[in-house]
């Protein structure tokens, strides 16, 4: 399939890097930090108990499901308060947690593919997560990052896709959204009027009752190859009009 692509919106977690290793690391880092600085909280909320508390806080605050940062901080503050530790420790504990969250291990193809894609068209990070592109070191490849926390609504809401298109100054149908999640990324983008690309690294079967992605690849490298073959040449912005 061939169609014009003027810009790309790109999911991050489980598209550019796997999230499972990050999730395991941040739990360990936070637990280690609490053992050193807030031992009563560490004793009352070991890994499993902290995980259960976090899930309870998420379930009780569904109005904040677009803001993982706020929810995780709420859970951390509640754990400290329940344990009789100083709630002010939530700030340095969060810093330790967030530093670990931004230590990513890319899929082998991601960095080179991202460089190739960004050389073709503007790329905007569009994520429900809270990764910091500057800390990670790849901000140079992105026109901007739009998070659900910043926008106030999460994917698959159409409005977050539309907000990204507006910032890219592109019509909805001129933007290709790329991501791994069938509902959040592909279905959300399609319903919002964007083109959609499913990154299916695990050879899953497509299962959706209403729609299918415009494109499907097993890596970002394959998407970069498609763009090289099908995208219009990048205009020379330095040439005289």
From TrEMBL:
This is HAD-IA family hydrolase. Keywords: Hydrolase. The keyword Oxidoreductase does not apply. It holds the Pfam family Hydrolase. It comes from the Bacteria. The keyword Hydrolase applies. One of its GO terms (molecular function) is hydrolase activity.
């Amino acid at each position: 399939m061939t169609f014009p692509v003027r810009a790309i919106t790109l999911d991050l977690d489980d598209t550019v890097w796997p999230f499972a290793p990050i999730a395991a690391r941040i739990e360990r880092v936070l637990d280690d930090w609490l053992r050193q600085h807030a031992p009563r909280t560490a004793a009352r909320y070991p890994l499993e108990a902290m995980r259960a508390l976090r899930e309870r806080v998420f379930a009780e605050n569904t109005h904040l499901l677009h803001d993982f940062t706020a929810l995780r901080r709420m859970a951390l503050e509640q754990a400290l308060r329940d344990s009789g530790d100083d709630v002010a420790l939530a700030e340095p504990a969060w810093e330790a947690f967030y530093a670990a969250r931004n230590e990513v291990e890319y899929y082998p193809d991601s960095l080179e593919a991202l460089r190739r894609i960004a050389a073709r068209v503007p790329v905007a990070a569009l994520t429900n997560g809270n990764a910091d592109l500057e800390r990670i070191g790849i901000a140079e490849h992105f026109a901007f990052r739009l998070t659900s926390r910043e926008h106030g609504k999460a994917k698959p809401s159409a409005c977050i896709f539309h907000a990204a298109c507006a910032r890219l100054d592109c019509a909805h149908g001129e933007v290709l959204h790329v991501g791994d999640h069938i509902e959040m990324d592909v279905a959300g983008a399609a319903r919002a009027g964007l083109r959609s690309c499913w990154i299916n690294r695990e050879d899953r079967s497509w299962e959706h009752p209403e729609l299918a992605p415009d494109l499907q690849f097993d890596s970002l490298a394959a998407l970069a190859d498609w763009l090289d073959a099908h995208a219009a040449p990048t205009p020379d912005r330095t040439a005289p009009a």
